[in-house]
Amino acid sequence: MSQTVWYTTARRAKGGGTGKRATDRGATSAIATKTNPIDIAIRRIASVAALSEREQDFIRSLPHTTDSRRRGVILVTEGSRTQSMTFVISGWACRQRFLPDGRRQILGFALPGDILDVGILSGGTASTSIVTITPVELLKTPIPAEMLRSNPELCKTDGSGDGSARIPELVRLDLLASKLELARAQDHVLRLGRQTAYERMAHLLLELHGRLGAVGLTRGPVFSLPLTQEALADALGLSIVHINRTLQQLRADRLVEMGAGVVKLLDADALAAIADFSPNRSIRMAS
Amino acid sequence: MSQTVWYTTARRAKGGGTGKRATDRGATSAIATKTNPIDIAIRRIASVAALSEREQDFIRSLPHTTDSRRRGVILVTEGSRTQSMTFVISGWACRQRFLPDGRRQILGFALPGDILDVGILSGGTASTSIVTITPVELLKTPIPAEMLRSNPELCKTDGSGDGSARIPELVRLDLLASKLELARAQDHVLRLGRQTAYERMAHLLLELHGRLGAVGLTRGPVFSLPLTQEALADALGLSIVHINRTLQQLRADRLVEMGAGVVKLLDADALAAIADFSPNRSIRMAS
DNA sequence: CGAATGCTTGACTGCGGTCAAACGATGTGG
DNA sequence: CCACATCGTTTGACCGCAGTCAAGCATTCG
Question: Left (φ > 0), alpha (ψ -120 to 50) or beta: where does B41 sit?
Fold first, then answer.
């Protein structure tokens, strides 16, 4: 069940609708009742950086295809190259790496609205593998070499904004996503290096709540968390047993409620104080 | 002493030269005897990504000023904005963050050739503070908004390469640096999350050796390491005492020799096996 | 020369890991 | 529809890696 709660929510408009809704869907295009998938990416980015109308339109105008994957599937293999830029539309994935003896570290999570292959426009290879944690819907847009080759005009815009607007939209997007990913990785380093299990867990829950909230996937302090305790352990650098005990402690302290893949933050302020959490540290992009 | 070894080395050509050298310096420009400072940055980047002649020339042609700072000085404050892109020419600095109770985590090191304010072209603020560990020479080049505004042509190039060459050099540089920084942060997460003290230390020493080697600051397996055990502790998420014991263990195992701020890797292969180290994981940029 | 800084060592502690077993929920095939 | 296997969670007992506390050294520097 824990794996499907988010999914049910995400699909509600589609699978669980009333008869009336279904009729609506038939009458207009799917886009009318369901938001354009790419909007979730725009929303995510806009939550952190100022996107001009022009930029939003540009992103919407990108040619793209959607695609879905089961849970437990490898989306990206460390060291591989990609020819397209991929957004997560729904579902969870994680970046991870293994040590030769099997120890796993989850480096971060890819949530709806996130770009999977960050930094791709610089031309390199993937720095981590990415694996789905739940079923996932992806949006791919063919990109760098290809698009730019066929349309060199993409390299210049007449942006009249703050100069950075002159940077081609797609590149700016990649740059933004890279920076966000870096800031999150740095948060993660601090968590693992200098925080206790209790603090780490509080910090991670707040991060996920904030990120999901930015794309409308929370209901107040409640959000679904399709992670096993094993995944939490591998993310926070702890053992499963200790994760279990840490969660019990947080519950006992009346800071969170958890169950069936759903989390409720009972006292976000207290959690933030414990974890020294400040939302989107660093990333005040708008100028 | 440990703080000055690197410095002596870096300055050797300038301060410790013979009378004859001094004459040479007088006769030609400083650039003739001393490599152009910006070349170290080019060398660093080229060690990891293919840079065309055109790109290298572009970087060299950037207007720039040099600047030096003492050790223990703040170069960048978390949350601040910068109008210039800054390269480290010599010396060490570190990205760090504090918890309210004083615990410190070093998120990474900035070595000669590195870009300090990674991701700056995306327009945001600094995600960490940066502090000098030794005296440092910097090279600043006025940038994003400013340059692009005054010279929109920078946004298009006729690059005939792999498409990514069409991306304006400066932006590509920033993108590359961001990706490198991200890959290193991810390495760091794995270290802190799933490796033992012994493994972490081996991994860090190999990383630093590799990065210094890329800019010619090693002599075979030897390099100078101007870090106190306290700094190592804050980087690796350990206590000073444990750092000390871990180093002793590495010495006892005949894997490294250390002293007076100088490190010698006695068995890099064994260290790599212990730490699961692969140089520049992820970053095969050249196509 | 004393003061400061950094390194080293020993004794003790504790956070978090390991091992092991039991329990609940889910799911699959006969 | 139940038997059984699987997966994830929970709990208890014990252990060990790394932290803390404290003191003693070695260098450097004003």
Answer: alpha
